[in-house]
């Protein structure tokens, strides 16, 4: 029970710290939210209208004053109203998350399956041609930004081959409620590929190293001495002992996945949280940006906690330790 209370307190401390730092950074940003608001609507604002917006958005108050007002709203479950959209932040995030969830889920699952599989193949065949090719791929793409991959995929598969749409989350001119799942899936393929192609790199390298360590361990040497074949050793020892480290790496990828999604969604003009984050940042929409910061923090923290719970189910030793 004490451990749960400690984690809850740690979570709230984390939210307070991240939100305050974000608040300060946004406040010191050179972007003028009022000027951005006027430019986005292609209108000129009179001094009276500017003053009205300053009062409405609380820009006449001190930084700490505005932060505590926002914090009070947060404790009531209210993230405020977006300056850009003039709608509740929570409503905007829900809509963006529904689009991003499908993209991130597909990328996360594919990254795990492909990355761990290739890592095991490379680790089980150290020094072979397979290992060298897989390692070369991982090293090259580990240093390649996801947005650049996205641009290359657009050029090849959209402009040259015309296989997939270049942007948007749905066909142009089709109402949101009329978009089919297959249409959404087709528009999601290139953004998902951008995330997976880069995302598997670190997972391949770390899985490869772990499998190599397992296959060089004493109990595997003993298994070889007993006459077990390579396939049996890999399936019986390597796969079993890779489960927990692989799970850790997968859930640790939550934060990288979110940051990669921000850039990729912007490249493909995909209507998700990433696109919202860039737009809110460039236009100085503090309520929306802070809402996205809180949401992303909860998202990453939840991923780590889910990993802890799964650990208890997978490894009985951890259940015994937690019960003591």
UniProtKB/TrEMBL annotation:
Q: Entry's CDD domains?
A: TM_PBP2 (cd06261)
Indicate how the chain sits in the lipid bilayer. Multi-pass membrane protein
In terms of superkingdom, the source organism counts as Bacteria
| InterPro entries in alphabetical order | MetI-like (IPR000515), MetI-like_sf (IPR035906)
* UniProtKB keywords: Cell membrane, Membrane, Transmembrane, Transmembrane helix, Transport
Which PROSITE patterns does the UniProt record give? ABC_TM1 (PS50928)
**Which processes are annotated in GO (biological process)?**
transmembrane transport
What is the predominant subcellular site recorded for this chain? Answer: membrane
Query: What stretches pass through the bilayer?
Result: 7-26, 101-124, 136-159, 188-205, 243-268, 288-314
Q: Where in the cell is it found?
A: Cell membrane
Query: Could you tell me which residue ranges the ABC transmembrane type-1 domain spans?
Result: 97-311
Q: Name one GO cellular component term.
A: plasma membrane
The family classification in the record reads: Belongs to the binding-protein-dependent transport system permease family.
Q: What is this protein called?
A: Peptide/nickel transport system permease protein
Q: Which organism is it from?
A: Peptoniphilus asaccharolyticus DSM 20463
